[in-house]
């Protein structure tokens, strides 16, 4: 079932989000190195990583499962960025574009999962 990753818009957008998260967290205070910096970066990296792992799997069902994990990581990242904003570590001008990227990715993931569900259900018929 191998998918070409560079042709998956959702993967490319999640890579771009991850790069943006790395850039924005670089300005966080150093005492957050093992806190919000590490957790935000880990959650961000998890999104394209799980999309990639799912794309390399042998079935639509497995791919769908990994998309679910990627989506969970996007909600985790969203939460961490909002916390950083409330702690005044991340300004709203930097937060909002990231939240927009995350929202777009979540919608794309949901749509992708719906499409895969249809393919999974059609195979059962």
Automatic annotation (TrEMBL):
The record's section on PANTHER family has: FOUR HELIX BUNDLE PROTEIN
A Pfam match? 23S_rRNA_IVP
Source organism superkingdom:
Bacteria
Q: Which InterPro entries match?
A: 23S_rRNA-intervening_sequence, 23S_rRNA_IVS_sf
Q: Which Gene3D superfamilies match?
A: 23S rRNA-intervening sequence
What is this protein's name?
Four helix bundle protein
């Amino acid at each position: 079932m191998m998918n070409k990753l560079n042709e998956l818009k959702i993967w490319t957008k999640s890579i771009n989000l991850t790069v943006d998260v790395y850039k924005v967290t670089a300005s966080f205070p150093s005492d957050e190195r093992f806190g919000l910096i590490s957790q935000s970066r880990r959650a961000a990296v998890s999104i394209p990583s799980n999309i990639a792992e799912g794309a390399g799997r042998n079935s639509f069902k497995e791919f769908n499962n990994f998309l679910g994990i990627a989506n969970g990581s996007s909600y985790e990242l969203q939460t961490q960025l909002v916390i950083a904003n409330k702690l005044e570590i991340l300004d709203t001008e930097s937060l909002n574009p990231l939240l927009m990227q995350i929202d777009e990715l979540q919608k794309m993931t949901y749509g992708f999962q719906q499409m895969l569900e249809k393919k999974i259900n059609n195979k059962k018929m």
